[in-house]
Design goal:
Elements: E1 12-16, H1 21-32, E2 36-41, H2 46-54, E3 59-63, H3 72-83, E4 88-91, H4 106-134, E5 137-142, H5 155-175, E6 180-187, H6 196-200, H7 202-211, H8 224-231, E7 242-245
Length: 252
Amino acid sequence: MSVSPFDLSGRVALVTGGNRGLGQGLALALAAAGADIVAVSTGAATDTGRHVRALGRRFHAIEADLSTLAPIAGIVEESVAQLGSVDILVNNAGLIRRADAVDFSEADWDAVIDVNLKSAFFLAQAVGRRMIAAGGGKIINIASMLSFQGGIRVPSYTASKSGLAGITRLLANEWAGKNVNVNAIAPGYMATDNTAQLRADEGRNREILARIPAGRWGDPSDLGGAAVFLASRAADYVHGAILPVDGGWLAR
């Protein structure tokens, strides 16, 4: 009996921001496809762990603050010590700060860039070294519609997600020949904590929904299929792609 190319059994996925929202949705999709999960987050990932274990997968939680690089080496070492390897990395942890560009502060710039871009690169570097030595692996960066567009009132978020798209392509160029696939998913407008302000604004919510051909906000579970694909053998010849999961937003 042949094994599905989408089967992730026996693999370990490290998911940052894995305690809620998109990160939890991504972790559960990978677990449903067979992967064991390490969830990294600033708070307890109890709920994610309960769901992952209910699927019959192993789970390990690491509480760490990715606003600095200090925890990165320890995250990788602990993941390997607890579950044996890191075969899949999902760089999902992220921040957003909103203010007009003329008023945007250096503190809000640095906070977002440090988590969304700097830590994502250096975690990919640390995991990538192990993947190269092991003969391969899958890295999935969580980009954004603002990897393609400018947005409004989110200067550092736009810069970080545009940068993450560029880093995805750069790492793909360097590591594709080493059997490490580096790709990204660009979520559209998702119903998460990061978009709570937008959804609460009746006018802005109406404008956004009018632009989305699917006619609804995305759910974290909507990213699951794209994540499983990019993490699996089915995507072995996919390198440097940025896959929109946006309800048709970019096609409008």
